Amino acid sequence: MTDAKERPLRIGDFCITNRLFVGTGKYATYELMRDALAESGCQVVTVAVRRERMADERGRNILDFLDLQRYFLLPNTAGCFNADDAVRTALLGRELLEGLENPGASWVKLEVLGDRKTLLPDPVGTLEALKTLKGEGFTVLCYTSDDPVMARRLKEAAADSVMPAGSPIGSGQGVLNPYNIRIILEDLKAGDEDFPVIVDAGVGTASDVTIAMELGSDGVLLNTGIAGAKDPIAMARAMRLALEAGLLARRAGRIPRKLYATASSPLEGVIGT
Hints:
α2 crosses α3 (123-135). This protein has helices at 30-40, 83-100, 123-135, 148-156, 178-188, 206-215, 224-227, 232-252; strands spanning 9-11, 14-16, 20-23, 44-48, 72-76, 107-110, 139-144, 161-164, 198-200, 219-222. Helices cover 36% and strands 15% of the residues. It has a single domain (9-252), classed as Alpha-Beta Barrel (TIM Barrel), CATH 3.20.20.70. By secondary structure, the protein is of the alpha/beta class.
């Protein structure tokens, strides 16, 4: 029986056994975050270095609620609106994780945003920051729009993974343009089937994760879809199962879509009346 954990996902020097990447922001309590992460089954946990509150009102540190033997921490440059800030934030994240001896110290999820209203990626700033971070020895996972041309440019600039948005950050709209995602996958994987493409942003519910995986994505990164749910623990489990279902369905191979009906039971040999 094939499942979502059977074939590891390789990103740079990292080998990931679970393809669901989950963030740490927006949870009501650290305890809820800890339990939701555990229920999701994720291996990679993203931390927004620039805006993550490292301690709550009781003085408790978020890192005390993350099992660093279980999770790879993925520093995130969320909240950065130019290349220089993104690079500085990535370097700060690396310094933090080196002190923790976490294996994720040399990688970063790169976000350079265009404005505070839309939170759409700035393509020029993203490319500039990517080139600098690669020169600094980072494994870089690049957040981008669902523009196939931009995705190609990022791969050509040595991104270790390209992460097209399903829809705007935190919008819960799911994969708005599956055709662009398919084009990105076809383009970036041409001659390089193992190049990792991860859908990032806009996930609202479990079916969004399944759709992303059925399209051919190598994984899904989400945060608000779990943290903002009425029951984050139940939603975390739903997201885990949805990812496994989508991956299994893709490997199984769906039937083609047809305009007209096709009888489930053959008409040949039916007894006449």
